[in-house]
Amino acid sequence: MAKGQLMSNLDIVNDCDRLPYYESDPGKYSDLLSTCYKFHLHGSPIVGYMPHWVVEEMPWGEGWLVDHTQKLVSPHTDYDSVESQSRLIRETLERAKERDKFKVLRRWRNELHSVVGMSGEVSMERAGSALFGIITYGAHLTAYVGDGDRMKIWVPRRASNKHTYGGMLDNTVAGGISKGEKPFECLVREAEEEASLPEGVVRKHAKPCGTVSYFLIRDAKAGGETGLLQPECQFVYDLELGADIIPKPNDDEVEDFQLWGVDKVQKAIAEGQFKPNCALVLLDFFIRHGILTPDNEADYAEIVSRLHRKLPFPTS
Questions:
Q1: Is 196 left (phi over 0), alpha (psi -120 to 50) or beta?
Q2: Looking at residue 1, what is its pLDDT?
Q3: d(Cα 100, Cα 108) in Å, to the nearest integer?
Q4: What is the pTM of this model?
Q5: Which one, 38, 114, 208, 312, has least CB within 10 Å?
Q6: Distance CA 172, CA 89 (A)
């Protein structure tokens, strides 16, 4: 797309939901996945896609079965418990980090994600999730003031020194869900940490509004290696605030918050100023609030469908 050209809403979806659909382009879909290895746990279905170059660089060790003919990666059958598989994954990623095999591991979080579904018991360090291509989960909140033509949305700007999407616009509150954490508890925690929103206000007034799911293929803006396959599912919430509650940065993740009208938010989305998945959460917000409709958006049905992609791995 030419520099300065505005993106359509469907362009915005395509910028985040990047894995081709088999139904739309079977050749492109097959060509991409033919170069990937399928990752699964002991006795589980496939839970992730790994690019071949990740498999080639990963210091596997004897605990793994790596089948280069069928392009499969799994723990050895001796590792058949939750504890042993979690330990094997942790030790392998720690070894890769010590050898500086992957740039994404330089941002080690000491946060664990479930490997299979949000409540799965086998865990993985968050920084390594994109290397294995597993589904990760987050909670995103859109805080707004007023309704109809008077609606305004609280928009934060990410700190410019963040390694991922530094300086881009974000949802009012957003964060990854750790292993064993409920989506709403994640939201409450992140709302206080990122936006100084009182816990009581969030617990009483934040409304769950479903999910947004997509299959990202990481580019340079995400930081670290490009081409990593990263399916994600975000639990989305709305929070109507009074004029007396103003989000404020409470850590080094956010530079500031601005209260913008809907038109200004839509223009910033079209200019590509928002972190890609946060733009999708806002499109979902506009649909649910009747701002984006079949009458003013020619690609409405396609956009609605694409905001709720069925991911190819277990989600529970």
A1: left
A2: 52
A3: 12
A4: 0.94
A5: 208
A6: 33
Confidence of residue 172 (pLDDT cuts 50, 70, 90): very high
Residue 11 corresponds to which amino acid? D
- Give the position of tokens 């639990």: 235
Q: Which residues are bridge partners to 246 per DSSP?
A: none
Sequence letter at residue 218: R
CA–CA dist 209, 287 (Å, integer): 11
- What is the token pair recorded at 172? 């009012």
Contact in structure between 207 and 238 (CB atoms under 8 Å)? yes
Q: Which residues are registered as beta bridge partners of 174? A: 140
Query: What pLDDT does residue 119 have?
Result: 61
Average pLDDT on 230-248 reads 96
Other beta carbons within 10 angstroms of residue 122's beta carbon come to: 24
